[in-house]
Amino acid sequence: MNSIVYVFLFATLVMSFTSYVSAEVSVEPIRHPRRNPSESECTETCANSFTGGDKSRIEKVEILRDFYCNCHIKIA
């Protein structure tokens, strides 16, 4: 009985680990040409620079300083 429980726990851990690995996100800083850009401007700049214009792969953006944005990009 205990071995069945251990096998079930192991399978659950393996399945959760693979979903964690496939949801990897890369964080890339980028300089925006305008001072104090809005979030939508940062999203557009990130999409054009890293994904060829695909905004669906941009998970979120952070406005860091006057001209800089952090782009959180979905890898897979």
From TrEMBL:
Keywords: Signal. It comes from the Eukaryota. Residues 1-23 form the signal peptide. This is SLPTX15.
